[in-house]
Amino acid sequence: MALPPPDPQFVLRGTSAAVHTLHFSCGGPEPDIPLLFSGSENGFIHVWNLKTHRVDTALDGHGRRSVYCVETMGGKDRLLSQGRDQRICLWDLAEGRTSVTDSVFTEHVGFCRCSLLKVAQGRWLMAMAARSLEEVQILELPSKTSVCTLKPEVGAKLGMPMCLKLWQLNCDSQPVLLAGYEDGSVVLWNVSMGKALSQLICHQEPVMSLDFDAEKAKGISGSSEKVLSIWSLNEQQNLQVYKTHELVNAGISDITIRPDKKILATAGWDHRIRIFGWKKLKPLAVLDYHTATVHCVSFSDHSNPRERLLAAGSKDQRISVWSIYAQT
Amino acid sequence: VCFILGGLDCSISFVSHVLGKVCVHGRQKEILGVLVPHLTDLTKSDCIWQRICWRLLECVPDRWMEAVVLGFVQRAPGADVLSRLLGNLVVKNKKAQFVVTQKMLLLQYGHTTAVLQNLLGYLSLDSVRRTLLLRVLQELLETWSSSSAVKHSPAEQQLYISKAILICLSHLKEPEIESCRQELLTSMMEGVKCHLDSSLPQLRRLGMVVAESISSKINTEGPVLKFEYEEDDETRELKSLLVQTPPFCVVPSLPDDDRSEKAGAALPLVPESNEKPHTAAPAMPDEELDAELDSDDDLTPYEMSEDKELKIKPPMYIRDCIEVLTGSRAEDVDKWEATVKALESLVRKNPAATREVSVELAKILLHLEERTCIEGFVELRQRAQVAVLTTDPVPVAKYLTSQFYSLNYSLRQRMDILDVLVLAAQELSCPKFHGKTKHSGVQKPCIQLLPGSDSSKDWRRIVDERIKNKTRRFDMGRSHVELASRPNEFNSVAGHFFFPLIQHFDRPLTTFDLLGEDHLVLGRLVHTLAILMYLAVNTVAVTAMGKALLEFVWALRFHTDSYVRQGLLSCISSLLLSVPTERILADMTEELLETQSWLGDVMEKDPDGDCRRLALQNLLLMENLRKKLEAVPS
C-alpha cells in the first residue's frame, strides 16, 4: 500500500510576488546558517534563514524588474543574479554587506537563465544568452572577458536559446555547453572551439528547461508539451534520444537532478512537483501543494544527507520546502 | 462506302457534296463511323491522302459545312488526327471557323470534354491556327467574366466554358501568355468577383478553380492565388484538364510530323513525397545497461492516484456564466472556455433560472466572439443559443427577430439568427426529447419511489435496473406510448418565429438591404421561412402563416438570383404540405390559381435546373390536392 505523498516540511511566505528562482546555500560548516536565496517578480532577492524560516535580507538590485536566476559563486558570500533589466549582478554579501560589486549588461530580453561553471579557483565561466537572437555568449568571471560566442549556422532556425548548462567531465577536460532552443532542439557546443558538436531535436515545442548528469552522460529536458525527453551522449559526443516520458498535464518550467544523481524533480504548469528516479525515470511522487504554476525547483547542498531539502517556488508567491527521499 | 480513287487529278467535289448531304440529314454517325477511321489510317503517313482529305472537306458546300465539321470534331479520336483530317480548314473557310470557334464553344454546351480537347488541341497544333486559339480564349474569358452570364446562364454551360478555358490555358506557351498576361489578369479579377458573388456553391467553386488556374499560369514565380474549397470530383476533373500538356507542343508548326499517340496523354504530376523533418531515431537502450544493480528499487513511490488532468471547473449557475462571459479580465480565459463548453447543458438543466435571464443571455450569445481557440466554438455557441430559445421561446424569438432587421450586424450574425430559429423550431415541434432523458417516464406506471431521475445516485440506479428487469415484461407496450406523445410546443410560438421575419423585408436599412445587394441573406431568409412553414404543420397559426407566405412569394417571384427562387419554390411546397387542404381551398383559391400559372412558366423557362424541378414538384402537389378534393364528396 503506497503512502500518501508527504506534506511540505515548511512553507516560506513573504515574497509578495511570484517566485522565479531558488538556490540553496547550506554546505557551509556548522555555525553557518543554511540559507535559501529566492528571486521574485518584484525584483527582490530574498535571503531566507532556514532555521528561523524568515527573511534575513532582501536585496534590491534589479530596478524592480523580475529576477529569474540566482546562483552562488563558491559560498554564500558571493551571489550572482540575473534580472529582466538585462543585467547580471554580482553581489558581495560577506559580513552583512549587500552591495553589487559588478554587473554585466547582457542586452538579453528573454528569460534564458545563465549557467555558471567553476573552472579554477576564483574563476568561473558563465554562459548567457546574448543580444542577438540565437547567440550564446561565454564570459569569464570575474574578469568579464568574452571567451567565445556560440552562433548557430545561418538558416538553422533554432530560435532563442531557452536554457543553458555548462559542464565539464572533470577539472581537466574541456568545458562543454548544452543549450536548449526555441525550436525544441538541444545542441552540444564545444566552448573552446566555439563549434557545435551535436544537435538533437527533442521536442516539438520550445525546450523550457534541461539538466545533465555528467557522470552518466545522460540528460533530461522538459518543454511546454506533455513529454519529458531523456537523451544521452555517446563517446563520439553525439546526442541520442534515450527515452521519453509522457506526463499527465502539459508544461514543465524547471527540471533539476539531485546532486547525488538518485532522483530528479520537475516543476509543472499544472501546479504540481513531480519526483522521478533518475536511473529509469520511475515516477515516485506527485507533490500537490501549490495553487498556481510552479516556476522553479531546487535541491539543497547539505553535507549531511538526512537534512537534504527540496524547494519549489511558485506563482502563488509561496516557497514550499520538502524533505523527500532524504534517507537514501 | 469505299474510296476507289484513280489518278491524282480527279475532282472530289462530288464526294464532298454527298458527304455534306448525308451529314445534314442526320446520318453523321453512320457515314463518319466508316469514313473517319479509314481516313485516319490513310492519312497517317501519306501526304497525298491528307491533301485529298482536306480538299474533300473544303469542297463541302457552306450550307452543310456545319454538320460535317461537327461530325468530324466529334468523331476524331484525337486532336492530332483532327489536325490531319481538317488541315487548315478553319482558317480557309469562314463557316468552319464560325462553327469551331464560336458555335461549338459559346453557343452550345452539350459536348463532352473529349470533344473539347480535340477541338482546342486541333487549334493549337498549327501556328496559323494558334491565333485563333488566342482569340477563342479571349472570347471565352469575356463570357466567363461577364456578370450577367454568370447570373443567367445555366450551371452546365458555365461548367463547359470553364473546362474550355482550362484546356486553352493548358495549350498556351510562355510567349503567348506573356503577350496576353494583362488581359488574363483583368478578366480573372472581374470573373472571380462575379463568381464569388453568386449564391450557388457550385458556381463559386467553378470560379475559384478557374481563377486559381489562370493565376498559376500567369504567375509562374511568386505567390499564386489559392482558394479554400472542398475538393470534389468536379474540381478534380477541372484541375486535371489544366495539367495535361500534349507531348508534341514543342513543334507546332509542322502538322505533317510524326506525332506520338493521343493528344490526351496526361502527364500525371508526380506527387511529392512528404518528407517530414528527420528526427534522430531513438537509440534502443541496451540490454546490458539494465543488468546494472537497480538502486532505484529502494526508492518506494508514493501514492499518485490523485494525479489527474487539470480541469477547470465551469460555473454551476447561469448567472455566474453570464458574469464570466461578459467579464473582460484576461486571466479568466480558462474559465471562459469552460463556461462556453458547459453553457448548453446548464441552460437545459435549469429552465426556470434561464427564463429569468433569457433575453440577456441571448444578447450575450449573439455577440459572443471567440476569445481563445476552442474547437467547435461556432457549434457550441449555436447550441447554447438554441437551448436558450427553446427554454423561453417567446421573448427570445422576439429579440432575435428584431435584431435580424437591426443596424450594424454582420451578414454572418443575421444568418446565424436564422439558423438558430430553424433549429429551435425543429426541436420544439419534434416529439422526441432533446436534452433531459427521462428515465422516470418508463417506470411511472409501477414504481413510485423514484421521483426525479436526474439526481439518481449509484445505488438507486442499481435498484432501478433490477426493478426494470423484473417489470419489463409487463410494461413494454405502455412505455412506448408513454414516450411518444407530448404537446407540440411549437404551436404557441410558431407565429412569433414567423411573422416578425416576414414583416420588414422590403424596408432597406443603411447597412442591410435584403432586396438589393444582400440577396444571399434574402435567399437564406426565404429558405428559413419555408422550413418554419413546414414545421408549423398542425399548429393553429398555420393558415395565417400560409396566407402571408403566399403574398411574400408573390412579391418576390421574379427575383434574379436562382438561390432565392429555389427558396420561394420550397416555400410553396411547404405551404401545400402544411396547410390543411380545406383551408387552402377555402381561403386561398385565387392566389393558388395565379401561382399555378406562375409555376408553369418557371417549369418551362427558368434557366436553373433546380428551379424547374421544384416547380414541377409543386405542380404535382397541386394536382394531388385537386384530386383529393374531387375524391371527397363535398
Write the layout of secondary structure elements.
The complex is a heterodimer of chains A (328) and B (634).
Chain A (H helix, E strand, L loop, with lengths): L9 E3 L6 E7 L9 E6 L3 E6 L4 E7 L6 E6 L5 E6 L3 E6 L6 E7 L9 E6 L2 E7 L6 E6 L3 E6 L10 E7 L8 E6 L3 E6 L4 E7 L5 E7 L4 E6 L3 E7 L5 E8 L5 E6 L5 E6 L4 E5 L5 E5 L6 E6 L10 E5 L4 E4 L6
Antiparallel strand pairs in A: 1-28, 2-3, 3-4, 4-5, 6-7, 7-8, 8-9, 10-11, 11-12, 12-13, 14-15, 15-16, 16-17, 18-19, 19-20, 20-21, 22-23, 23-24, 24-25, 26-27, 27-28
Chain B lengths: L12 H12 L3 H16 L3 H12 L3 H14 L3 H8 L2 H4 L1 H14 L5 H12 L2 H19 L1 H6 L2 H17 L2 H6 L1 H17 L3 H18 L14 H11 L43 H4 L27 H9 L6 H17 L1 H6 L1 H10 L9 H15 L1 H12 L6 H19 L10 H4 L14 H27 L9 H10 L15 H17 L6 H15 L5 H17 L2 H7 L1 H17 L3 H23 L3
CATH architecture of one domain in chain A: Beta Barrel
The top-level CATH class of one domain in chain A is Mainly Beta
Note poorly predicted spans of chain A: none
Tertiary shape of chain A:
globular
Strand tally of chain A = 28
Q: Work out the helicity level of chain A.
A: under 10%
Summarize, please.
The complex is a heterodimer of chains A (about 325) and B (about 625). Chain A is an all-beta fold.
